[in-house]
Amino acid sequence: MPGIVYKKWLVVMLAFTALFLTACGEKQEERGKLIMVTNATFPPYEFYQGDRIVGIDADMVREIALRNNLELVIEDMSFDSVIAAVQTGKADVAASGITVTEDRKKQIDFTTSYVQADQVIIVRDEAAIAGPADLKGRRIGVQHGTTGDMYVTSNIQEPERFQDGALAVASLVTGKIDAVVLDSAPAEEHVARNKGIRILPGALVSEEYAMAISKNRPELLAMFNKTMAEMKADGTMKTIWARYLDEHGKPLAVPAVESVEKGLWQRMAESFDVNFVKDNRWRYLVNGFLVTIQISACAVLMGLVIGFLVAVVRSAHDQTGRYKVLNFLCHIYLTVVRGTPVVVQLLIIYFVIFGSVDVSKVLVAIVAFGVNSGAYVAEIIRSGIMAVDSGQMEAGRSLGLSYGTTMRSVILPQAFKNVLPALGNEFIVLLKETSVCGYIALQDLTKGGDIIRSQTYDAFLPLIAVALTYLVVVVCLSQLMKKLENSLKKNER
Q: Which of 6-20, 106-120, 133-147 has the lowest mean pLDDT?
């Protein structure tokens, strides 16, 4: 058995290595596409309208692509990942209300700036905060990675960082924080859609927006600057701005907050309609759920294969002292994977390992979560194998059974029954860990809830819907594992 396992292990590892080297040797093909990355939770610059990402930034890049005969692909990801996507070649341009700073200029090139924006302070109506001087010692919310975050950190204090502005404002409305520092245009949107908050007069700091392009793409930068100059000269730029802002720079088509008090059930019914029925927003959750299930199911299978191979190699080494090199490699794998967060592994695999490869993001997520799960599955299976009394192996061998037959027919069935509850827990954890897929622009279940929240400015129902969906899936999976355990127990009788 150890010899057979050794050969199979080598075959599998060589296959994975060949696949990886082949993939890494490929260059991203030129297909006349322009890939733009953004964080579509920043109206009026980028936000969802149905299934389409629109806004000032999105429409500008759409026009640039059209004038240069390019097919535009817009990918929605976490704001703190958009610049990294451009640096690593996963995207051509980042347009997400990105402020030009000296530090950022060292990493990427910026197009001609197209707007001057202000960072403003949002507070509750009754708050005794009149300006920046009153923020010291207060709980200040910012969107992670923005210049508002940088300014508050450098000039006031450590803020409370949120994934997007909508979450920060929701925390302000519910009294979790005292103020929010945000760009002026989206701040106007949030204040218009939420009662009880206001924007303090005056700007905290002024800044310029531009689009980010890799320093390795000077020809692309020149194309953008040339086209943007043409759009400004012929009035196209002004037309795009007029779709979303009035002559005073205030957002258009923002519904006024109703002052009429309504009953709880009426408010819930209206909220349900706005969050899920209007514009078929329920599809974000359904499509995201399907992506989550696809990634989870494939990652579980991959984790089982990797975990089983590693567990058998390590168990054979513990029992026989052989395969020291393989055991050493397995030990390194376990140490690295279990010692680093899964979101970091996901980003490394996407931006570094597959940095120059045009590969499906679903495949990237499956590999990341499969490799991560395999480390935990390996130790679970190994603990089950080692927990079986050594006399079982000795008895099998004394009956004339080979090592492989004894392991396959005697040891592994007992080990599987012993570790089944732990394996079930690992699968449940894996399912929930996929909620970080949004970092690489995958629209999973959690990201679907984020998209709804970015459109409706309602944090409650989208988050509850996402949580309930995960809960139902986990309960169903737990029941299946319970039935399997009971079935195995019956076989023992």
A: 6-20
In order, the DSSP letters of 389-443 are -HHHHHHHHHTT--HHHHIIIIIHHHHHHHHHHHHHHHHHHHHHHGGGGGGGT--
The per-residue pLDDT for range 88-118, each reduced to its tens digit, is 999 999 999 999 989 899 999 999 999 888 9
Q: What is the DSSP letter of 164?
A: S
Residue whose structure tokens are 């200029």 = 105
CATH 3.40.190.10 fits 115-207, yes or no: yes
Tokens of 357: 């490869």
**d(C-alpha 124, C-alpha 101), whole Å:** 30
Question: pLDDT (tens digit, 9 = 90+) per residue, 438-476?
Answer: 888 889 999 999 888 877 877 788 989 999 999 999 999
Mean per-residue pLDDT for 164-179? Answer: 90
| Contact in structure between 318 and 386 (CB atoms under 8 Å) | yes
Rounded CA separation 54/66 (Å)? 15
- The topology under which CATH files domain 2-21+282-492 is MetI-like fold (1.10.3720)
**Six token digits for residue 381:** 């299976």
How many CB atoms within 10 Å of residue 163?
Answer: 18
